[in-house]
Write a structure and sequence with these properties.
single chain; mainly alpha; 2 domains
Length: 159
């Protein structure tokens, strides 16, 4: 355990903040040095390279997570509240995160509209919707409307 918690069971907001800060700092470093360079191209024809804005944004997140970690390690509060998120909430959050990455993969390999339809349907089922007409309507219309707005309206290429 990273810290002694005044909360029975050791599940405090302080402890959760420490774990989240470490996770965000690690994720920020991975994003800055691995993911962003691999997913952007060196294009300086228009002034600012495409990797600049996401790299700066991730640097800000990483620095802010570092501040949170330092603050939570230095300041020990006796009145630390219990963590309001139960373990089942964390599992559900992890499940939706995995579903998001699966949806991104589906859009990459099946293209935007078919992958988006599968992703929206899976998301709605995971969120608890069991009405087939609602699932079909939203799952089909949402990617089609987004595609129409981005491709035909704004001339942005989609996968």
């Amino acid at each position: 355990m990273l810290c002694e918690s005044p909360v029975p069971g050791g599940n405090s907001v302080r402890q959760a903040d420490i774990w989240i800060a470490v996770f965000l700092m690690a994720l920020g470093v991975i994003m800055i040095f691995v993911v962003i360079p691999a997913q952007t191209f060196p294009g300086e024809r228009y002034g600012v390279p495409p990797a600049t804005v996401p790299s700066v944004a991730m640097a800000v997140v990483t620095v802010m997570a570092g501040f949170l970690l330092i603050q939570r390690l230095v300041v020990r509060r006796v009145d630390d509240a219990p963590n309001p998120m139960a373990g089942s909430h964390w599992v559900r959050l992890a499940g939706f995160t995995a579903l998001l990455f699966a949806g991104l993969g589906a859009m990459k390999y099946l293209h935007f509209v078919p992958g988006g339809i599968l992703f929206m349907a899976a998301l709605m089922v995971a969120a608890g919707n069991r009405k087939p007409l609602t699932i079909l309507g939203v799952a089909i219309l949402t990617p089609l409307l987004i595609y129409a707005a981005l491709w035909h309206g704004m001339r942005l290429p989609l996968p």
